[in-house]
Design goal:
alpha+beta; 5-stranded mixed beta sheet; 350 residues; Alpha-Beta Plaits
């Protein structure tokens, strides 16, 4: 589990596709804004000079409000997300060491927020690092409490509570997110070909058009030539082999950013955001990749290419582009199949 890669990107797409991005952004903005208030209550309780605590308070306010605004304005990048954690961790640790010993130890429980955030959005490895840091800081604070108060009971009890919340909660979140990831893969992918199913394709495609990308959007409709006749002659098992091979061919012919889905029996869709040259070359490359399979299968390929812009309704734009690509595909089929027909259009004329 701890070797799993960072899941910020797929979780971002998952939340956006299911309409949860806005609610998540607002929730994280509230958490980020909370950093601004962390040192305020320590201005009079801290043994440190007022100027030190004032500087810490101003710094916390800048960090908290700045990242709250960032999340309210839109979904941040992975780097911005990690920067928020780094700044928040610095503010938190600074606050802990500036406070009275017992207050500092109690405040350590606040580190669970940072650990939980990493567990939800980032890699388990980063969670492990944050847990180690949290335990180390808590141990130092517990040691200070043991020196300030008679006996070890308060220090030990406080340290144990902090360790419980900063270890158990993040690990539980990691387990839940990992399970969610497995379920997402199973529910979003076509079991036969391994590409996305129809629902997942449209969700991912709409999400891709919701963020800045590149010069052009290309949507490709692929329909295998005379596939029904092949199935009737050779059986569905042989047809399934062809569909599986086509799925691999589409993945090989496209870039790593392409969204590929099986939307019908022998119909596939591809969406990608590319430069002008690459977007115009992709449909023919897809057609050639299928024709090169050893299964003696060809495809009629239709493509819709449109300049990338700030689409006001990404879901509707995807549907419109699919409709244009579908019409181009039928033109390729009427022309004899095993060819690509490209339709280039302006954004507002879909």
């Amino acid at each position: 589990m701890w070797t799993q890669p960072d899941h910020f990107e797929w979780l971002t797409s998952y939340l956006g596709a299911r309409g949860l991005a806005t609610a998540t952004r607002r929730s994280v903005a509230i958490v980020a804004a909370g950093l601004a208030a962390m040192p305020v209550g320590l201005l009079n309780a801290s043994p440190q000079p007022v100027i030190v605590m004032s500087a810490l308070t101003v710094g916390a306010a800048i960090v908290g409000i700045g990242f709250a605004i960032l999340w309210l304005r839109g979904w941040p990048t992975r780097g911005q997300s990690l920067a928020m954690i780094a700044c928040g961790g610095a503010v938190t640790v600074g606050t802990l060491f500036a406070a009275e010993p017992l207050t500092a130890l109690i405040s350590c429980s606040g580190l669970v927020v940072l650990c939980g955030y990493l567990a939800f959005f980032h890699s388990p490895r980063s969670v492990a690092v944050s847990i180690v840091v949290s335990i180390a800081v808590s141990a130092v604070c517990a040691h200070r409490v043991s020196e300030a108060l008679p006996g070890l009971s308060v220090a030990v009890a406080g340290f144990w509570v902090v360790v419980e919340v900063t270890v158990i909660v993040p690990i539980a979140i990691v387990a839940v997110v990992r399970t969610l990831g497995v379920d997402v893969v199973r529910s979003d992918h076509d079991a036969l070909t391994g590409v996305l199913n129809r629902r997942a394709f449209y969700e991912r495609a709409a999400s891709a058009l919701s963020a800045p990308a590149c010069e052009y959007v290309v949507v490709i409709m692929v329909d295998l030539d005379r596939f029904k006749s092949f199935n009737d002659t050779n059986g569905h098992a042989a047809g399934d082999q062809i569909l599986t091979a086509v799925g691999w061919a589409l993945r090989g012919a496209n870039s790593g950013t392409a969204i590929i889905g099986r939307v019908g029996g022998d119909e596939f869709l591809v969406l990608d955001c590319l430069t002008a040259d690459r977007s115009h070359a992709l449909p023919q490359r897809v057609c050639a990749a299928i024709a090169a399979l050893p299964h003696r299968v060809t495809a009629s390929v239709g493509a819709a290419i449109v300049p990338f812009t700030a689409f006001t309704d990404p879901a509707r734009t995807v549907s419109d582009l699919v409709r244009v690509a579908d019409a181009a595909m039928y033109q390729a089929k009427r022309d004899g199949g095993n060819r690509a027909v490209v339709s280039v259009t302006e954004t507002g004329r879909l």
